[in-house]
Write a structure and sequence with these properties.
By secondary structure, the chain is mainly beta. It has a single domain (11-34, 68-156), classed as Hcp1-like (Pnp Oxidase, Chain A), CATH 2.30.110. It is built from 2 helices and 10 strands; from the N terminus they run H-E-E-E-E-E-E-H-E-E-E-E. The strands form 2 sheets. Strands 1, 2, 3, 6, 7, 8, 9 and 10 form an 8-stranded antiparallel beta sheet that branches. A two-stranded antiparallel ribbon has the order 4-5. The longest helix is centred in the middle third of the chain and has 9 residues, at 83-91. It is extended, with a radius of gyration of 22 Å. The relative contact order is 0.22.
């Protein structure tokens, strides 16, 4: 049975290539975003059995602290791009003036409207990696930046 156009929009997943990244109030073009993961540490509890005669302690695993997310952003280096913006952001760490910013990764529909957004709160750069250079390769020059944040929140449009 063929699906109608409106049914296809709601039944099929959105493609991952149509997204926008906003760092603070600036939109920056990145070719890859990874690490949007919400993870909890776990704690193991051992307690005596409630029923008498039950063998050994009862073991329970419970969620504990939220793990700080590490998000990796990769982008191709382009003449006149935002290289200086990323460098100045991480370079401020040297003088202990790191500015924490909220970062939004917005998945867009085919019209360019955001459908769902991931918000990394109070993010700051922990690593800026230059591209790998190889005289035998014709790959694009890709730089990578790692951010650490307080948490990730998901918002629907």
């Amino acid at each position: 049975m063929a699906l109608a156009k409106d049914d296809i929009k709601t039944a099929y997943p959105l493609p991952v290539y149509n997204y926008r990244v906003e760092i603070g109030s600036d939109a920056v073009a990145f070719s890859e975003v990874s690490g949007l993961t919400i993870t909890y540490e776990t704690t193991t509890y051992k307690e005596s059995p409630v029923e008498s005669g039950a063998p050994g302690p009862r073991v329970m695993h419970m969620p504990a602290q939220l793990t700080a997310p590490t998000v990796t952003l990769k982008k191709g280096m382009v003449i006149g791009s935002s290289v200086s913006t990323l460098f100045s952001w991480i370079n401020a760490t040297q003088i202990n003036q790191t500015e924490k910013k909220d970062v939004f990764i917005r998945l867009m529909d085919e019209k360019g409207s955001p459908v769902i957004s991931w918000k990394v709160t109070n993010a700051f750069p922990t690593k800026l990696e230059a591209p790998s250079f190889d005289a035998n390769s014709n790959d694009a020059a890709i730089e990578s930046m790692e951010l650490m944040g307080d948490g990730i929140f998901i918002e629907e449009a």
